[in-house]
Amino acid sequence: MFKLNAATLTIATALAISVNAVNLGVRADEVLCRPTGSFSCQGSPNLPFPTLGQIPNFPLVIGFANTNDNTSPNCGDCYELTHVVNGETRTRFVTVGSNSDTGFINMCITEVRNLTGITGPLPDPASIRVDLVERPRSLCGL
Ligand SMILES: *[C@@H]1O[C@H](CO)[C@@H](O)[C@H](O)[C@H]1NC(C)=O
């Protein structure tokens, strides 16, 4: 017989929370901080802004996998990003505007510092973990 105990409850809760969420590392990227910086979705019909700085929630614009060029349907997708610092969950709404390596997002370094509270050298990108859940684009001001 299946016995319900604290451990199985913890696992069940974790699974419920992780539905549709993707857990990724975070690479700090200076280019994503520059209002006139280049972005791979530049010219996308989904993100019709000539400059990065015109994206409504700039500088909360991220690079995310499968956004290789401005024809990607992922351009302009809006995600709710969460990161836990000392038990406190921090939330940001971020717009996909550029590309990244699989398993990571790229994010403006100032926003990485704000999110993590790290002021000194940033650790290995793979050790900065965030969860992303897709949300309506309107939550990113689109
Ligand atoms: C940190 O980010 C939050 C949420 O985006 C924002 O409200 C706050 O002003 C930022 N703080 C700094 C110092 O940029």
Question: Would you kindly provide a written description of the structure presented here, covering whatever features stand out?
Answer:
The protein is an alpha/beta fold. The protein has one domain (22-140): RlpA-like domain (Barwin-like endoglucanases, Beta Barrel). The chain is built from 2 helices and 6 strands. It has helices at residues 6-18, 109-116; strands at residues 22-29, 61-63, 78-85, 88-98, 104-108, 129-135. A hairpin with a 2-residue loop joins strand 3 (78-85) and strand 4 (88-98). Mean pLDDT is 89; it is low at 7-16. It binds 2-acetamido-2-deoxy-beta-D-glucopyranose. 2-acetamido-2-deoxy-beta-D-glucopyranose is lined by residues 92, 114. Residues 92, 114 line the site of 2-acetamido-2-deoxy-beta-D-glucopyranose. It comes from Coprinellus micaceus (Glistening ink-cap mushroom). Keywords: Secreted, Signal.
Observed structural traits:
6 strands, 6-stranded mixed β-barrel, 30% strand, 142 residues, Barwin-like endoglucanases, binds 2-acetamido-2-deoxy-beta-D-glucopyranose, alpha/beta, Cerato-platanin, 15% helix
